[in-house]
Amino acid sequence: MLIFAFLTELQNMKKLFYIIFPAVLMLAADFTWAQTARSLFWRSDSLQVSEIISETGDQYRKVGHHGPAVENSHFALRIYFNDSGAIDAYSKSGRGMELERYLWYPSEEIRETAGAGWDAYIVGKTVGFGGIALWDGEQEVRLVATKGRTARVGDTKKGSYAEVIAYGVAYKDDFVDISIRIDMTSKSREAVVTASELSGKKVQFITGVNYHEGQRVQTGEGYISVWGTHPAKELSMPLGAGMRFSHKDFPMMEKTEDFVRIISKPASSVRTTLVGASVKEAELNSAKRFEAYMMK
C-alpha cells in the first residue's frame, strides 16, 4: 500500500510539473525579453496605434507624449512630432517598462510609492538629446516638413523602435525626406539613432547633446558626456546624457552656449548611440561612473 501511494503521489507530481513548468517558462521569457516597449497614441482617445500620418506635419499637442516614444529599462526617448527634429528623454531607475502605464507623466505619488521615472530632461531650443537637423554649409536647417510627417512605432526581433519621417524638407535648392529612427534592443541599456535621407541623397546631418549651466560636459574623439541637473520646475536631480559616434562620419564638433553639436560629412545615412542614466539607478548613478562608461 505504501508503494502504491508513493507511485500515485509521484504521478500527481509529474502532472503538476507539466502544468506549472510551461507557465514558469512563459514568465521567465517575459521577464527576460520584456525589456523594451514603445508607445504612440492620439491624446483624444489614448488608444495605442502603430502609425500616425499628418498632412500638416505638426501634431505636437495632439499626439500623446508629443510624438512616438520607445524605452528600455533605464530610459525612454520620444521624437517630437513637429519641425524641431528634437529628441527628449525620460529618466528611470532600471526597474521595468513605464510608457504604456504612465504615458510619460506619472504623478508625484506614483513616483514616490512605485519608484516611477520622471520627465526632467529639458530640450530647450536645441534638438535635445541626439535629435537631428541639417547643415547647409553655413547654418542649421530644421526639418520643416512641407509635404507632411509620419510617426511610427513597432517591434523588431531584438526590441522596439520609434520613427518620425519629415517629407519635403527644403535643403540647398532641393527637397529631401528625412527619417529619424530610434532602436532599442532587449539586452542593452543603449539606444541607436539612425538618420536617413530616404531617396539616398547625400546631406550633412547635425546632432549632439544639449546642456545647461552647471552641468559637467566632457568630449573626446567619438563621444559626448553630459551629467548634471536640468532646470526643471519640480523635478531636479542629476541625469546623464551621452552619445557615441564615429569620428569619420562626424569630423566636425563644436560647443555652443547650450549644445555640443557634431556635423557629418555628406551622407545619405548616419548613426549614433545614446546612453541615458540617472542618480536613481544602481549602475551609472554618478558623474564619475557615467563619464567612465562613456570614455571606455
Characterise this structure.
The protein is of the alpha+beta class and 296 residues long. The termini are far apart. 18% of the residues lie in helices and 36% in strands. The longest helix has 32 residues, at 2-33. The chain has four helices and 18 strands. Strand 3 and strand 4 (75-79) form a beta hairpin.
**Element-by-element helix/strand order:** HEEEEEHHEEEEEEEEEEEEEH
Number of strands: 18
Sheet-strand content, in percent, reads: 35-45%
Helical coverage, percent range:
10-25%
**Mean pLDDT figure:** 89
Do you know the CATH topology of the largest domain?
Answer: Beta-galactosidase, Chain A, domain 5
Read across the widest sheet, the strand sequence of neighbours is: 2-8-9-10-11-18-15-14-13
How does the helix and strand content classify structurally? alpha+beta
Under the CATH scheme, the architecture of the largest domain is Distorted Sandwich
Instruction: Supply the number of structural domains.
Output: 2
* Amino-to-carboxy terminus distance: 68 Å
As an assembly, this protein is: single chain
Low-confidence stretches: 15-34
Q: Please state the CA-atom Rg, rounded to the nearest Å.
A: 22 Å
Give the C-level CATH assignment of the largest domain.
Mainly Beta
What global shape is seen?
globular
